[in-house]
Amino acid sequence: MRALCWEGVGKLAVRDVPEPAIRAEGDIIVRVRASSVCGSDLHLINGYLPAMREGDILGHEFTGEVVETGSGVRRHQVGDRVVVGSVVACGGCWYCRTEQYSLCDNSNPQPVFTEKLWGHSPAGILGYSHAAGGYAGSHAEYIRVPFGDVGAFPVPDGVPDDSVVFASDAMPTGWMAADFCGLTGGEVVAVWGAGGVGQMAARSAQLLGAERVIMIDRFPDRLATAAERVGVETINYAETDVLEALREMTAGRGPDACIEAVGMESHDVGPTYAYDRVKQSARLQTDRPTSVRQAIMACRKGGTVSIVGVYAGLVDKFPLGAAMNKALVLRMGQMHAQRYIPMLLDRIASGEIDPGYLATHPLPLEEGARGYELFEKKQDGCLRSVLHP
Amino acid sequence: MTNNGTRWALLGVTTVTAVGVGRAVARRRHRRQPERQDGWYVVRRGVTVDRPRDAVIGFWTDRERLDRAVAGWATLEQVDDRSWRCVARDPAGGGTEWRAEITVDGPGTLRWRVEDGPVPQEGRIELVDAPQGRGTEIRAELRYRSGPLRRVFGLVKGDDPDLGLRDTLRRVKSLIECGQVIDTRRDPSGRSPGQEKATDKVREKLMTGGRA
Ligand SMILES: NC(=O)c1ccc[n+]([C@@H]2O[C@H](COP(=O)([O-])OP(=O)(O)OC[C@H]3O[C@@H](n4cnc5c(N)ncnc54)[C@H](O)[C@@H]3O)[C@@H](O)[C@H]2O)c1
Ligand SMILES: [Zn+2]
Ligand SMILES: [Zn+2]
Question: Key word Oxidoreductase present in the record (chain A) (predicted)?
Answer without folding.
Answer: yes
